Write the structure tokens for this entry.
Amino acid sequence: MTDYLTYEQPLNERIRTFLRLESLFNQFAFHVKHGSAWDNPIAIDAITDILSFTTRSDIKLEVLKELERQHSRLERLSKRPQIDQGQLAALLDKQTVLIGKLQSNAGQLGQETQSAELLNAVRQKNSVPGPICDFDLPAFHYWQTRPESTRREHLQQWFSPFNVLEEAITMILDVLRNSTDDSDETATKGFFQKVIDTNQAVQLLHISVPATLNCYPEISAGKHRFSVRFMINPNPYTRPEQFTEDVMFRLKICSV
């Protein structure tokens, strides 16, 4: 079975933000699970980065808009006989529950976490280059010596206001990624171009490349077309060059 490497290109700012947050959610989940003193600061970094997103813009509103938009579009599919009605109804029910959770969550997401003194102290020290040493922040050094279960409990408590946000963004991206099937494409001499159907709300390009190929795609997209240029860079000290052989890859043009 062929192994593939996947590359994604968002086509609007909303999906770009959701992908960044998804990466932070995954970063937090990985490091809170391992729980060592080396993992804790990275888990905290993920929380503070999520806080930066939620305090800088109204992420909750953006997620609500996208959930409601997807819900409305999927409801129209219920009239098509070829659709698995049971699976669609279950998905619509989950979306309705998440919309209700977000709407009932008053105020800005993460307000409770912002009030954690230790977290704020770490956040301020992170603006200085280098690690947080015991002489920088003795309180954090002491916290790192607490039992792993205690530290994990605190981390999960700080992250808990974002649970519904993670659940909603995960669902939005899952629906988007599964909105279409892969198509087999060929980039002639490393280059591929395709016109975008303007009747579709295309939000994400999903490209899968065989892991055995020593190249990677650079994706450029506009409103009407997108192009993929496969590059090779065996030496990171030199500039990448375009791959000159034909490349067979898988493509998803994701829209809901």
About this structure: The two ends are 30 Å apart (CA to CA). Residues 181-255 form a domain with the YacF-like fold (CATH 2.60.440.10). The CA atoms of residues 213 and 247 lie 8 Å apart.
